Amino acid sequence: VSGAGVKPTPTVHFVTVHDNYSVYKPGHTHRHVPEIEQELSAAAGSPRRIVFTPHLLPVSRGILSTIYVNLDPMWTEVDIQNAWELAYGGEPFIHVLQPGKLATLAHVVNTNRCAISATPAGAPGEWIIVTAIDNLVKGAAGQAVQNMNVAFGLPEGHGLIA
């Protein structure tokens, strides 16, 4: 079960999750919340808190995240797209989807890529960011290969599928 960790427990056993989709460690009970808040706070220059609700889906690989954010109401889908293209345009493993397209696991399975997309949530300034990764590649293993490549002066993507 993708995203459930490696320790077998009754709540993540395949016969329990098969043909099911469920919430997993919601709110501030998930172990990654402190590091997510730390990095968001560092980037923002002030403390940030999140509400994090991961889900268990019985697939062998992949994590899909839906992130709810409030931006200046003047921001448009094109503004977000342009900001991401500016930030990630040269990054081989970040796939910024065009407006109107939402990230899916199919965009990333068996790659070291992160797909990212945005869609309006309704009210001005409210947005839903959708990201997808293959956690068996883009997770720790792909990150380790990227870091090793950089450390040894190799091209960052050497040995990885973009």
Structure description:
The protein is α+β, with helices and mostly antiparallel strands and 162 residues long. It has one domain: 2-Layer Sandwich (Dihydrodipicolinate Reductase, domain 2), CATH 3.30.360. It has helices at 14-17, 33-44, 77-88, 140-151; strands spanning 22-23, 55-56, 63-70, 94-96, 114-120, 126-133. The strands form 2 sheets. A 4-stranded mixed beta sheet has the order 3-6-5-4, covered by helices on one side. The mean pLDDT is 88.
Output the keywords.
single chain, 162 residues, alpha+beta, Dihydrodipicolinate Reductase, domain 2, four-stranded mixed sheet, two-stranded antiparallel sheet, 4 helices, 19% strand
State which percent range the strand residues make up. Answer: 15-25%
Q: Can you tell me the CATH class?
A: Alpha Beta
- The oligomeric state of the chains shown is single chain
Instruction: Give the end-to-end Cα distance, rounded to a whole number of Å.
Output: 24 Å
Strand order of the largest sheet: 3-6-5-4
Can you say what the CATH homologous superfamily is?
Dihydrodipicolinate Reductase, domain 2
CATH architecture level-2 label: 2-Layer Sandwich
> What composes the largest sheet?
4 strands, mixed
Outline:
The protein has helices at 14-17, 33-44, 77-88, 140-151; strands at residues 22-23, 55-56, 63-70, 94-96, 114-120, 126-133. The mean pLDDT is 88. It is 25% helix and 19% strand.
